[in-house]
Design brief:
The chain has two domains: 3-115, 3-Layer(aba) Sandwich (Rossmann fold); 147-180. The chain contains eight helices and five strands; from the N terminus they run E-H-E-H-E-H-H-E-E-H-H-H-H. The protein has helices spanning 17-25, 45-53, 65-68, 72-84, 101-134, 147-155, 160-167, 171-180; strands at 3-9, 30-35, 59-62, 88-91, 96-97. A five-stranded mixed beta sheet has the order 2-1-3-4-5, with helices on both faces. Helix 4 (72-84) runs antiparallel to helix 5 (101-134) and helix 7 packs across helix 8. The longest helix is centred in the middle third of the chain and has 34 residues, at 101-134. It starts with a strand and ends with a helix.
Length: 181
C-alpha cells in the first residue's frame, strides 16, 4: 500500500508548501502538486497522473476535499475511478475516507458544499468586478502571458503548439493573443 498525496492551489501566486508539509507528515511517500483551478478536471495533468498511478490498496490523500475538486460530479467520478483501481481516498480535514460506507456519504455532501462554495466565490467576484467597473476602478485581470513574446515567436515562424510549449500555456491562449493583435 502506498500513500499518495495530491496538493493543489488555484493560482500561480498561491503557496503549496502547507499542503505538501501536511501530506508528508501523514506519511505520503509520493506527492504530486499543481497550480490550477479545481473547477474542473481539465488541465490537471498531475491529478490525471495520480489517478493513473493508483494500484490496489493505495491511498490517495488530500488535505481538504476542495483540493481534489470543486465540482460534485468530478469528485464523485474521481472516487469511482480510485475504487475501480482498488484504491481509496482520504481527506484529512475533516478526516474522512472511502474505506467505509459512511465516508462515501460524507464525501458526497462535502463535494456538494465545495461546488456551492465555488458558485458563491464566482458570484462575489462578479459583483466586485461590477462595482469596480461602476466606479471606474476596474482595469481587468492580471495578464499572465507575455503577449509581445507570443507575437515575436509567431513572426519568427513558430507554430502555436511550439509557442504554447515554450511559454507553458495552451494553444488556445496563443491563438487568442494572435487573434487580438
Amino acid at each position: 500500500m502506498t500513500r499518495i498525496g495530491y496538493a493543489r492551489v488555484s493560482t500561480l501566486d498561491q503557496d503549496l508548501e502547507g499542503q505538501v508539509t501536511r501530506l508528508k507528515v501523514e506519511g505520503c511517500s509520493v506527492i504530486r502538486s499543481e497550480k490550477v483551478s479545481g473547477g474542473s478536471r481539465d488541465g490537471r495533468a498531475e491529478l490525471a497522473t495520480v489517478i493513473e498511478f493508483l494500484r490496489p490498496g493505495d491511498e490517495l490523500m488530500v488535505t481538504r476535499l476542495d483540493r481534489l475538486g470543486r465540482d460534485t460530479r468530478d469528485v464523485l467520478n474521481l472516487i469511482h475511478e480510485a475504487e475501480q483501481r482498488g484504491a481509496y481516498i482520504t481527506v484529512l480535514d475533516p478526516h474522512v475516507s472511502t474505506r467505509g460506507e459512511m465516508g462515501h456519504v460524507v464525501l458526497t455532501v462535502l463535494g456538494m458544499v465545495a461546488q456551492m462554495e465555488r458558485r458563491f466565490i464566482k458570484e462575489r467576484q462578479r459583483e466586485g468586478i461590477e462595482r469596480a467597473k461602476g466606479s471606474g476602478a476596474y482595469v481587468g485581470g492580471k495578464r499572465r502571458l507575455d503577449r509581445n513574446r507570443i507575437i515575436t515567436l509567431s513572426k519568427a515562424g513558430n507554430g502555436a503548439a511550439a509557442i504554447a510549449t515554450a511559454l507553458g500555456c495552451s494553444r488556445m491562449q496563443v491563438y487568442r493573443v494572435l487573434r487580438e493583435s
